[in-house]
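Note to self: keep these together.
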Amino acid sequence: MSSSFSLSDSSQCNYDVFLSFRGEDTRKTIVSHLYTALEGKGINTFKDDQRLETGDHISDKLHRAIQGSKSAVVVLSENYATSRWCLMELQLIMAFYKLGEIKVFPIFYGVDPSDVRHQRGSFGLGRYQDQETTDKVLGWREALNLVAGLKGVDSRHCVDDAVMLQGIVEDISSHLDSIQPTPLDDVLGVEAHIEQMKHLLKIESDHEVHMIGLWGMGGIGKTTIAKCLYERFGRKFPAHCFIEKVDQTCKDVNLRFVQNQFFCDILRIRQANFRAVDCGETLARSRLGTLKAFIVLDGVERVEQLHALAKETSWFGRGSRIIITTRDKKLLETCSVTTVHEVRCLEKEESLKMLKHFAFPGGAPPFDAYEELVIRASRLAQGLPFALVAFGLFLCRITSIEGWEDALKTFETAPDPSIMDVLKSSYMNLDLRSKTIFLKIACLFNGEPLRRVSGLLGETETRITNLADKSLIHISNGGFIEMHSLIQQVGREIVLEESMFIPRQQKMLWDPLGYDVLKSKTGTEKTEGMKLHICELPQAESSIDEYAFDNMHNLVYLKFFKHLDDVESKLDLISDDYILPSTLRLLHWDAYPLTTLSPRFPVDCLVELHLRYSNLESLWDGTPFLLKLRMLDVTGSKNLRKLPDFSSAPKLEELITKGCMRLERFPDTIGSLSSLKKLDVSHCDCLMDLEMIIGELPTLQKPIPGIFRQVAVDIPDSKDTLNSLTDISIQGKLHFWLSSLRGKAAHLSFSCLQRVPYGHVHPRVMSELYGFKSLDIMRFNYKSDGPSFKCYSFSKFPYLTELNLINLNIQSIPDDIGFLRELQKLDLSGNDFTYLPEEMVNLSKMKSLRLFNCCNIQKLPKLIQLETLKLSDCIYLSSLLDTSATKRDGSRFLLQKLWLNNCKTIPKLSDTLSHCTNLTYLDLSRNDIVAMPASIRLLPLLRSLYLNDCKKLKSLSQISPHLTSLYASGCSSLDTIYLPLDHSLILFDLSYCPSLKEVEPLINRFLPHGRNKEVSQHFACIPGSRVPSYFNNQATSLPHHWHSSESVGFDACIIIACESPFHIQLSSSSYSCTQEDNRTYRINLKPDIFLPSESTTSKGEAISEHHMFIFHVPGNINVHEFCLEPQLELSHEFQSAPVKIISYAVRVIPKTGVDAREHYISCREYLSEVSKPENVDSAKDTDEDSISKGTTDRREITEMSGHENDQRKSKISSIFGKLKLNRIFKNTR
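Structure:
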């Protein structure tokens, strides 16, 4: 038998064609010729040349071959039906045909198709009368009848066999070429990978042999991509094979077995016997050198495996392509595979699509309540396709919300067994030392900087990055270790398994078991690390006593942490007299509860000490011997007044006191820290009056070749100058005395390159340059009479990617700024220059320029490459962009975001904007425009437009159909707005527009039409004190047949009042609507409250204090259980809320065509159930002023039917405004 069947017998075979024939009739004639023709076309064909017709069933091998084939050719010859094995084979083929899994091509070779259909002549089944076969005849009869009905080839009508075979091969080839990616391929996003791989494979080139690596973590889809490539291109090559699970098969059998199968498949031979693996190279050089082959080696994880199968490109004929899938990037580098395609996890939208595809019939959840659960499961899978499929297939069997909740809790606490198996195999291939590193990262250090983890573990960065090469971690561009959440889960599960799930036996502990061990004081010498989230402890107040750490003699890493936005720590100490293990290298204790450190605090082994947001007033008295300490972080310790003596901390590299507002001074020994690289003393209020000098190195200290030029920071009372800093953030009275920069500022921050690419600059030149990657010098406020900061040159800062010089009253910018070729972001806001150098045209990488409040600037250079440009309050700017060149060559600006608020002197604004066809965001607030520029409608990508406080604006009639957000607050003259029917607005702010007319038609036009199509949430703010009739109209009762699935959501109107002189300001984050359960929708209003400046209000101007918030919320609404809760969320700085909800109304929207009537519910009073005695007092709190003006209606009910005898009442169920439709509709007709 000649075949190319897959290595693993447990997996499906992969064939293009399976040949079914009666050997004694056709093996040496038509079948042999057909097989040769198919193979010659590169069509992978299974032909059984060693059939042993024994037993009463098809062999497992044949069963797998049929199941794994895309098509089957059935040669129905004279004696075909005389073989019960042929009939069993045909029955299996037709079974897969009926399932749609195989295409069947029948050849009626010298027989009449009608004889096959009716089982006449040699196809009669009367011969099978014995008891063993009688029960099978019915299935054979059905298979013969089915195959005879298919379109096939009748040899009796063909000129000769050669012509017949040519037509058959062409038909099969056309069918295989027509097979498109399956819907699953589409869900996986495989097509995008195939397009990228096509570029790397260079299929059309026959001159070279290419090896390409497919690299990525386990379960990410490498094999799927490789299979798709193989199916699409493999047949175009005379020789081709797909060897699956190489590493696993080597473990299950051996490498020689894999090598033997490889040569059998690629050479189409029955057996390739080797005495040793090394002998394979000889065969490869002698037999493969002339073959043009397409080879996929899947799951290669060791160098010797690749060497045995495809050591060199010289083994293969010109034009060959070899794809290697692996989790080990270093393996590819070792074997000189330089072309590598990295397969990464799916993006959020792709992940959700895949999960829904497997979890729900049709790929869509039945209720909105499932959406949050789907997002939760997708977040856990973190874009890993294998996990998304596993979760989806598991969840598809669960039909209740409660079941999903329970399943997700299981997934979040322990890995799915199949996922565990896939991901754990990478861990098993590590050496013992790398396994230890992996487990410590999984349990303690995920998300931490590589450099710091290297120091804490006492391991080289190279050994840790080896885990990245093996796809177990990822090192971000910023140098942080990132481990996939499921790999982290697997690592923690391994720790649990090694300890037999006994917490006190674990090497590493984490939430919540770590606290249990501390509380019970059952820790042992086996415990090496502990990590607890102190805001998520199981009890409201959790405490430990002084003996909690007594038996943890080998504890090295202790992390009690909280996130920045977390509530207060739940962890407390019962006693001040506790003792921590002397072995600690890392102590990270956020919200440390004591005011000082214990005299017995262990410092001998400490490498890092983090005491953020602590209650500390001081650290140590005296001079502690911090000989190994590299990092001290006391961020946010508001009571800390002094730092310790650092004279015995020679290795300290990072000192962070950010937000220590009472810190009064630096220790005089800070200048002795020759290793200090990072210093952050920002937001230390008591240090703001300290005068510091930023200068050059002392003249006696010569620059060191190969090392960047250093800045010297002279701190008051310090004995020495800090001159080794590469990352700094300081505030105070700063005096700059650099040769290039001179002046006064209040803030300085910079960060430097860690390294420069080899050969990028000569070492001697390098010592004359600063290695700044970012530089930020600023004053906190702009003063028109402030002292001018001098910029003489930027030539010594060639590596800057971000430069911010803000509120410095700079008079001129040096021309050599044009040589900052790496610059991407530039902020020169609050300066006094009148122009920018034309040389800035050379800044080809600069994407963002901010010139806010540069009041004197009149003209900009040609900056066609910009994507973000902020020109707010550039009041004398008379030329925005030089459009002359773009008119000549037909080019367009790349601008995506543009701020022109309060830029009133720009001529021909509409014409200029017409050249910015990539704009997505445009701010024209506080301008004198009367009508919206016509060219705005022609900007196809524009999504957000700001026209706030355009006092002369009278009408809006050129609104682009693509616009999604429009802000026109404070446009006091605006009286007319025309919204096109095809508008796309979902956020619309017209607050403080008192002249606005025709409000109700505007609301009707704003809310989405075509309610059968999928829409997103809509939100508008419009002046008004009464609920529009759109919501108040009476409606008939709901029809009995109306169900929740026939609704598409609801519209809501909420009336709020804002007390003068406060104003509200809205943004896309000013509201949210969430579904709490199957019945409750909560609308949270979060407007910004501010006092308007004189420039935004006119004297005597009548400002409406009442606003209508209009919402559309899509979703399947269960109207019989519907409940709405509108709430205001205001800043804690207000002692009494200046904004109140007055009233609101809701309108439930049925699908178009369900019923001609739409159904309404409205509520005129916001306070709850005044008819109840217990609520009378709360009713008194109603805004009496509003009531007296008629802005609220004293009616506590709304009529829900047009007939007087069918009136029904609704009540508000709580002070938060719960609006329950089940009370209204429960007795509807």
